Amino acid sequence: MSSKTPHYEDQYLDLMRRIRDHGDERLDRTGVGTRSLFGEQLRFDLRDGRVPLLTTKRVFWKAAAREMLWFLSGQSNIRPLVEQNVHIWTDWPLDHYRRMTGENIDRDGFEARIRDDEDFAVRWGDLGPVYGVQWRNWPRYVPVSQPDESGCALYQRDPQGIDQMAALVESLRNDPASRRHIFTGWNVAELDGMALPPCHMTYQFHVSGAGELSCLLFQRSCDVLLGLPFNLFGAAMLTAMLAQQTGLTPQELIWSGGDVHLYRNHMDAVEEQLSRTPHGDPRLELFRKPDTLFDYDIGDFIVRDYAPQDHIRAPVAV
Ligand SMILES: Nc1nc(=O)c2c([nH]1)NC[C@@H]1CN(c3ccc(C(=O)N[C@@H](CCC(=O)O)C(=O)O)cc3)CN21
Ligand SMILES: O=c1ccn([C@H]2C[C@H](O)[C@@H](COP(=O)(O)O)O2)c(=O)[nH]1
């Protein structure tokens, strides 16, 4: 045993190592196969701008930040991501397009069409009612007729759904002691229409007596090598934005995972990452306080003192 002070990233590396050594081997939906543990928790200090950004490989935190801003915008089409050179969601619409048309287009070609042809993007670039749609516009139905003698009335979908994020900001401001600071993307009635059901699915927040804001994220399914680094950064960034908007200070991120796995074709990357030692103490800073949670821009964020080791490339299981 070494006696060095633990680094926040050790939790992540320990989780990786435990899955490698003790994970249940299983055939998953993608056909790639995983090793997996069920029910895991990681805790990260968020005070003074601390952020759980991995240092044993370069994490493209701006891509994760752009993804989070895209969720907050309520959109579900990959076009704005592609326009910002964020490729992480392209494989799912691409796979769908190839299966429907039989056309053997490559990723660059598909992204070029999404970028250059709005009609094509509308037809082929939408992921269905995923994260942002549920966060900002959860379907609501309103009566359009009086109840008849048996009590039946006609209901119609209100174009203005429920904005869970706006409601969250209000509840944090007006009722900080509440135990109901929650939003979720897991809309059971709409899962069928989603390209993928939400993985980081439920977020709960807690305000301490001292005005500190903590986030508890429940993630039902977690790709530890590729997904988790983005998910941790995203949750920390969201907590920082919410704290700024509500006059609180970030305190802690508690991440909990359901099926927490390593894909079989990630094992070399995992060995490489486990051979490295984390170092450094990056900090997330927000340059400006926009009027609302929905007015942030990528230029409002900077991570200071981030000097990661080299990027580790790995394929994503679609
Ligand atoms: N199997 C799987 N893993 C995931 O992490 C994942 C999905 N599917 N499906 C939906 C989203 C998309 N997400 C992704 C997809 C790809 C990368 C990825 O390839 N990351 C690389 C390169 C990033 C880049 O080029 O910007 C990385 O090294 O982080 C990360 C997150 C997270 N989610
Ligand atoms: O933000 C995300 C989104 C997705 N993932 C991973 C977790 C799984 O490996 C796949 C989803 O497959 P399911 O069969 O729907 O569980 O994507 C992630 O880690 N983070």
From TrEMBL:
GO biological process, one term: dTTP biosynthetic process
E.C. no: 2.1.1.45
Main location: cytoplasm
Keywords, sorted A to Z: Cytoplasm, Methyltransferase, Nucleotide biosynthesis, Transferase
Keyword Cytoplasm on entry: yes
Active site per database record: C199 (nucleophile), C199
Compartments where located: Cytoplasm
Thymidylate synthase/dCMP hydroxymethylase domain location: 11-318
Enzyme class label: transferase
Reactions catalysed: dUMP + (6R)-5,10-methylene-5,6,7,8-tetrahydrofolate = 7,8-dihydrofolate + dTMP
Gene Ontology molecular function terms on file: thymidylate synthase activity
Pathway in which the depicted protein is active: Pyrimidine metabolism; dTTP biosynthesis
Binding site for (6R)-5,10-methylene-5,6,7,8-tetrahydrofolate: D223, A317
Positions contributing to dUMP binding: R29, R179, R180, R220, S221, C222, D223, N231, H261, L262, Y263
CDD domains (alphabetical): TS_Pyrimidine_HMase
PROSITE patterns in alphabetical order: THYMIDYLATE_SYNTHASE
Cellular component terms per the entry's GO annotation: cytosol
Highest rank taxon of the organism: Bacteria
Function summary: Catalyzes the reductive methylation of 2'-deoxyuridine-5'-monophosphate (dUMP) to 2'-deoxythymidine-5'-monophosphate (dTMP) while utilizing 5,10-methylenetetrahydrofolate (mTHF) as the methyl donor and reductant in the reaction, yielding dihydrofolate (DHF) as a by-product. This enzymatic reaction provides an intracellular de novo source of dTMP, an essential precursor for DNA biosynthesis.
Subunit structure: Homodimer.
Family: Belongs to the thymidylate synthase family. Bacterial-type ThyA subfamily.
Protein name: Thymidylate synthase
Organism in which the protein naturally occurs: Sphingomonas lacunae
